[in-house]
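so i finally got all the pieces together for this one. its two components total, 1005 residues if u count the protein bits. some of the lines might not be protein, just check the labels. i wanna see the whole assembly predicted at once instead of chain by chain like last time, that was a mess tbh
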Amino acid sequence: MRGLHDLIGVWRRLAALIRRRRIARDIDDELAFHLAMRRADLAQDGAADPDRAARQQFGNVALLRDRTRDMWTFPSVESIVQDARFAVRTLIKAPGFTLVAAFALAVGIGANTAIFSLVDAVLVRGLPYADADRLVVLIGNVRRQTVERRGGSFPDYLDWRDQAASYEAMAAYTGSTTTVTSGSGDAERITIEAVSAPYFDVLGVAAGAGRTFRRDEDAVEGRDAVVVLGHGLWQRRFGGDAGVIGRTITLGTQPYEVVGVMPAGFTGLTDQAELWVPFTMSSLSGYALAQRGNRGLQVIARLRPGVTTDQAAAEMASISARLEAEYPDTNEARGVEVAPLPALTFGQIQPAVLALMVAVAFVLLIACANVANLLIGRSELRQKEIAVRTALGAGRARLLRQLVTESCVLAVIGAGLGLALASVALNLLVASTPLTLPTYVHPGLSLRVLAFTTGVALACGLLLGVAPALHARGGRISEALKDSARGSSGAAAQRLRGVLVVVEVSLAVILLVGAGMMIRTVSNLSAIDPGYDIERVLTLNVSVPRQQPAADAAPDGPPPPFVTPPRDLIARLEALPGVTAASLSSDYPLSGNSSAVFYAAEGDDTTAAGTRPRAYVHRVTPGFFETLGIPLEQGRPFLESELTPDAIAVIVSAGVVQRFWPGQNAVGKRVKLGSLAAATPWLSIVGVVPEVRFRGLPENPTSDPDLYFPYVDRGVQAVMVRTAVPPESVTALVSAEIRLESPDIVVYDVSTMATLVDAQTAQQRFTTWLMGVFAGVALLLSIVGIYGVMSYLVAQRSREFGIRLALGAGRAGIIRLVLAHGARLIAVGLAIGTVAAVGLSRLLEALVFRVTVADASAAGAVALLALVAIAACLAPALRATRVEPVVALRND
Amino acid sequence: MGDKARPTGELMPGTLDMLILKTLTRGALHGYGIAQHIQRASDDVLRVEEGALYPALHRLEVRGWLRAEWGTSEHNRRAKFYRLSVLGRRELARESDYWDRVASAVTRVMQAT
């Protein structure tokens, strides 16, 4: 085995790198010994000046020493450059080969580069905060049928903050929206965060100008009307004027003093915030701070160095137990989950990105197999050249180096093209992805990505250089010179090519099966009936401000009226052309704005936290169910007369009936908010609607039912419009109609129900789309590879076929012969690929929906590949039958 | 690398490695001893130049065909002794086999009339 010596050589030279001095000294000693021996011998022979004679015979000692030392070192940069130049010349001489090989590598390397930049941006660079691995989210939870994630309440947060020792700092925050009228431009609805003062310290982010909140600015409710502006808002409405600090701006109707501006790119943990207020200015977040049971807060904390998540979780468990003992009413069965922020942020997207990374690695391997096949063919053609060079004294290592240099140059050309491909593909990918990537994630060709690509290219180069070397290893010079004229090759080369076909087929199977599973997933997901009609529904949010209070109004008198009664909107919207129905509600499906309450049903006194009835509440106008196409199972929709704050009518979803009055008509039964003993009024059920996927697809996050209450006018509401035309087309019309009466009305979050549903399955559709592309590329590459190998094998055996034909073999027999050969290789590849696909299907577990690898989609993928692969063998097989016996026999 | 360090003059290209390997089948020897032996065994026909010998020895060592260790020479001096490794023995068999064929082929050609 020649290869072994080359490996030993590389290893020894590597090892020598750390023993350079030692080796140099040894060589000096060795040469000195030789000189001394020579001198002694010369003296014995009676030489006049043995010293001088010895040195004369020896020649240039310094040169000899250098040349001996060179044996232990790697080739110099100059000789590598020389080799590379030679390789480039060789490649230019074979432009067809070079183009095909470089393009195959470009596709493989380009796909890897593009996906790796995604990995780099999401999983390596990750969050834009210092020491982000010490950031944890404290998620208040409750033990019900399963442990359900909730949030924290302000009193709970204060207790956690004061009692826990695991954290450097802890902050509570919540996202909200408000209308800003100060600065330039129309009134604008913006996303804000109400935060406790240490928020910025926890994240390790300082203000770009001015300051963030002082520690005492979240101490007294309603006292500190200060805000920190986001960079975007500052630029947009205040022209980036530093003088805005210290000035007063109006949010809603209240004045606030600007104390600082955050640096560009900071959008808070909600990733959408443009402004921050202290938590204690709860009028903005609409949050009841004092209630321990009011759990809508997010809590973020920074672990002390060295404290693990588990340690923190253990501490939180004991704190929770203390709070549970102290406040059994509100804290029964309540715990805290300590979740690392990076995992929480990227956990969703991680499985897709990793699965895609594996997929592109396979594509690259297939591309490499193709190029290796081409290289083997080339090295056969070049056997004569190689033999001549060997005869002229080129060492084997030198030749191997030349081959590896050549394939590395090829790979570098491929990588160059691949980078260009990747940057184009990446832009397309980011522009067209249905995934909502965090705003700070910018996949791009960073230094790390370039290093990755370079590494991949060199790995390909080495791998590919070894292929022809492996193939060439058997041949000795004399043999090569002898039979190079015909360029035939030994059984080893044929076997190697067979292995390449098997590898290509099995990798393609894996990718096709993966793509098949994803396609099935998407079709399964789109087949889900959410329970409402998602076509032709426009969704938007509207903020209607109240009129300025009269100057003489009593401070605690009734609030001033809205600038326009929100409910009047419905009639106006329904009168618009193309609109068939409209409704107002507190929230709409998949808006993410639903909130839950405890309720009690007459005759049921369950109060244990684990099983206590809980439901999501929505306030809706009578047309809500019609607009969404939700049928009533029992009873009737609300009446116009019931749209008052003190109405006692309620519509429940089927889950409520199922639980308390199974099989009965629930109309007329009564429920109330809070516990049975609460002073809240009894509410009469007037209708029952089916359970719908109000809060998530494919399933609601929890199985709690819904309670629908009559709509009352609020400053902010969700509007839904059912249309007879594509819903996007009425957007401008609807917005204009809503804003007709006052420019202070803000329309925001305009979308369609179909878009909202799509967003729920973005992850799967994104993965499916890319997987499909990669599988397609893999299929194409492997077909090219199979075709190439089979053509080659047919050419190899053309003499044999000629003889067979001359001896009277039928054409069908020859075709069968070739196809059988191909089919054998393909079958082995299919078998290996299928087994591997079953193993690797686990990678997709987090992504697929109601699909297993055993599904018809996988079988379909295998069948497709088998069919296409056999078809690729057909052309060479037909060519085999056209061999002219005489020509084939003369072809020697 | 050492391919430029081929022996010149007396030796045919590629044969020095073989001669070194062959010499070492008799046991461990230092560089000077190897040169002496080749010269003596060839009746002074083949002279090994130091300029070729040491690069060749180190090349063979790097490849794993020779093992080297420091010992004491017959004149009680510290010297580097080379020994044949298993891989080296195998390589020698291959090289001498090839040599036999080439040499006899060349001879046949030269004797043909």
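Residues 396-432 of chain A form the longest helix (37 residues).
Chain A has a mean pLDDT of 86.
anyway lmk what u think
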